[in-house]
């Protein structure tokens, strides 16, 4: 038993989606990794050169403590792990943006312009009227059909009775 063309097409689409999703995440990882390496190099420079310099220590004063603590913490975290965390944080079901953000954008577009709002209301009313017409016809056609069946049954019974009476009269 082979696979039907529909199954082959759906499998192809699933594998293509997985491939494109994976490639996109790898590209995101490469971009975030480059950014994190630059930040790590800056923090490493601050930790090694600025924090160890007594002259700069005196000139920076209270800011020195915060800058050096941040730099020492950031130097101990690997850029690879930070890049993976950023990829996970920026992975959404709806693509590059969160679904909520996309939904809000659509609502802003629809409510921001009067034309789109009017078209939405008219389309909704049209669909409601169309549904009522479709369901209204089904109800009337089913009643008509049941009436036709009932009248046919009555006519057939009358013909059967008339035929039966004719046969009885001939036999008498």
Entry keywords:
elongated, 172 residues, mainly alpha
Largest β sheet strand count, sense and barrel closure? none
Number of helices: 6
In one word, what is the shape? elongated
Coarse structural class = mainly alpha
Q: Which residue ranges are poorly predicted, with pLDDT under 50 across at least 5 consecutive positions? A: none
Question: Could you give the order of the helices and strands?
Answer: HHHHHH
Distance between the termini: 72 Å
Output the radius of gyration: 39 Å
Give an overview in words.
With 172 residues, this protein is mainly alpha-helical. The chain has two domains: 1-91, no CATH class; 99-172. It contains six helices and no strands. Helix 1 (5-50) crosses helix 3 (62-76) and helix 1 packs across helix 4. The two termini are 72 Å apart. The model has no long low-confidence stretch (mean pLDDT 80).
Characterize this entry briefly:
Helices cover 88% and strands 0% of the residues. With 172 residues, the protein is mainly alpha-helical.
